[in-house]
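Long-time lurker, first post.

We've been arguing in lab meeting about whether NAP would sit comfortably in this protein at all. Half the group thinks yes, half thinks no, and nobody has a model to point at. So I'm putting the question to the forum: if I give you the sequence and the SMILES, can you give me back a predicted structure of the complex? Inputs are below. Any interpretation is welcome too.
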Amino acid sequence: MSAESKTLSAEPKTSSTALPSSGPAGSWLEPTTKGAPALEGFLVTGANGLVGSRVVAQLRQAGEKVLAVGRGETRFDQAIHYRSLDLAQPAQLRALIESVRPRTLIHCAAMTDVDGCEADPVAAWLVNVRAVEAAALGCRSTGTRLVALSTDYVFDGLAGPYDEEAAPNPRGAYAVTKRIGEETALLLAPGCAIARVAVVYSGRPGAKRTFALAALESLRRGEKVKAFQDQVVSPTLADNAAEMVIGLARSTAAGVFHCAGATCVSRVEFCRVLARKVGADEALVVPVSLAELRLPAPRPLRCALRVEKIQRLLGASMPLSLEQGLDRFLAELSA
Ligand SMILES: NC(=O)c1ccc[n+]([C@@H]2O[C@H](COP(=O)([O-])OP(=O)(O)OC[C@H]3O[C@@H](n4cnc5c(N)ncnc54)[C@H](OP(=O)(O)O)[C@@H]3O)[C@@H](O)[C@H]2O)c1
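Top reply:
Settle the argument with this. Predicted structure of the protein with NAP, as tokens:
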């Protein structure tokens, strides 16, 4: 057996009751017996991530029952119902879904390090494909509604902005595994929805460091910021992504939805708008081309996302414009 196939089949059959858990006691979280009654509550994976942490926070604020799933200890709200689970062992996720029987699963977890996926496609496959498969099969067997997050990187970036009807053409291990994850969910979980987000940023305390935050810090220090002039994207505030994903999850809509910011912009222009907002010198933004950086994994150039479909579902003002997103980002940072 090759090292790769060993890794792929190395999934111990564990019961979710054995998984480490924390948070307040609640009968909802106890394993149910077969034929258990109504499905209730939300299970959210990737709860320590940029989007997942905000999905959990917003659901909690709305008074929903939430079981947050993350890797290791919870890095956010200590009072939540929380389970630690390594998605490199996808069977554990299916077991958890079948045990808890949530009404809705919002699957935010993913291996998001694009160059890391390129270097280790087996790990990317396990998390971005096999864990989605486990999620979809669990949801299929319980009748749980699945919303799985995906990415603008499913497109090759030759002809964006793209709507949901555009044909994906993923390049690189991250993009390929995320696209196969989409297909897997759509095939296996009846009525599921795919929420594609893009270039996520957040000013929330404890949030992962993003391009936006690094750029802001440099601009405030009067240091130069290198930004791609040839990559046009739909930057998305994490909280706004969470709002759209929750709105989608509460609907019965099925299929693919672009849950991204409403403004298509180059990374250079993104930084210039940010500079203007904080009174920094726009000349600090140094345009570079993507090719100059010689990154290990391919990145799509024009991969902005059209958001009319989610606007029709949730209202025209739901995806924030860049101006609105950056205003909220700065407010989050100074809160
Ligand atoms: N961030 C972006 O710019 C962006 C752009 C387009 C699409 N997306 C998609 O949006 C979704 C949410 O991503 P995000 O922005 O919230 O990214 P993120 O901050 O990297 O969050 C992903 C989460 O998944 C968790 N995870 C990774 N491998 C795991 C494993 N083996 N077991 C358990 N958990 C694991 C990570 O845990 P750790 O915290 O322990 O690492 C992390 O908390 C993903 O589907 C992603 O592909 C993101």
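For your lab meeting: Confidence is low (pLDDT under 50) at residues 1-19. The CA atoms of residues 23 and 78 lie 7 Å apart. Whichever side wins, do check it experimentally.
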